[in-house]
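Posted in: Structural Biology > Protein-Ligand Complexes

Title: Requesting predicted complex, pyridoxal-5'-phosphate in pocket

I'd be grateful if someone could produce the 3D structure tokens for the following input. Sequence and ligand are given below.
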Amino acid sequence: MMAGFDVEKIRKKFPILLRQVGGKGLIYLDNTATSQTPVSVVDEIDYLYENTKANVHRGVHTLSQEATDRQEHTRRRVQGWINARSFEEIIFTRGTTEAINLVASSFGDRFKDGDEIILTVMEHHANIVPWQLLQRHKNIKLRVVDINDRGELDLEQYRSLFTPHTVLASFTHISNVLGTVNPVKEMTEIAHSHGVPVLIDGAQASPHLRPDVQDIGCDFYVFSSHKMYGPTGVGVLYGRKELLESMPPYQGGGEMIKHVSFEHTTFADLPFKFEAGTPDFIGIAAFAKAIDFIEETGIDNIRLHEEELLHYTTEKLLEIPGIKIYGTAPDKAAVISFNIGEAHNYDVGFLLDKMGVAVRTGHHCAQPLMERLGVPGTVRASFAAYNTFDEADRFIEALKRVAPMLM
Ligand code: PLP
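-- Reply #1 --
Done. Output follows.
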């Protein structure tokens, strides 16, 4: 157990962890899907609804200015957190999915028939389907990087996929199924050596590490607040300013214009050009408190604690007869996907729930990866800052009771 990391103190900040499920204390191991939210974030949302609810960027009145200030405070907080050069490079979206759709639609506007996009077999559907939607109008090819037996990307194949037609490489920083941490800086350098821009799906990385977009050198980086202990309905698109400036708006409406007439409309400057309509300004404002929580706890402390839980739980899991773990890369986040013998993942998850253990089951929005692994789905347990070794033990005990029932 890590010295100086007071998990009980952290748990007190998350009242939901006191819940009972199936008459037992909840063990929440579905953090990859969404993490829980500390009181500081919930209190902030309450406070904002009770005291400063007014639409942003529109009013001269006090409430509107306060609401605007808080939203813009979060933008600067995110800018600092990921080390973007300018606040203009931070676009608020509804989440990772919307951020990728924005890039696909707006940056993808320039793609032509015959252009190629490099993806990987471990992508979440959010980084597959938006590119396929482009194929309705343009004959664009998707070229896919495979994995090895440990669940690491085949970098040689990645290098070989670049052609003069490649217009984008888009890949996940951390796999939501395998936990693999991809060498995103190296992959970005390889793409740039071919003059190809890079989008990184940081949905699973942002809860576990601090992405430095300048150090990585990527052109786009996207993530969701709700996986980072923050509110739902808020996400971030980081984009390099020159690229964002060269892209057409994604949606039209209020907030994103300078002047509108029926003959001609001019668009607002960055970042507002990409933020049509009323944003979730209360969620955005409260997201700053989630970043505060991560910073106070220490992102490195969180990562180390989760790594210890990962190694501890993996070792215990391997004692269960018939267990198969998918994803064994040495550089791996605290996500464990597995199956036990022929037991259906859904049955395992259902029975675990009866014992108070919340895990994910199914294809995890990564059906091409499931096909590659040759399974319809897996059970997935994933850890966050507030999980404990005692919870890991109780999860394993529950699994040891469940396994024989299904074999
Ligand atoms: N990308 C990855 C790797 C994910 O794990 C997820 C969600 O699980 C997403 C994208 C989609 O995120 P959101 O649903 O917040 O848009």
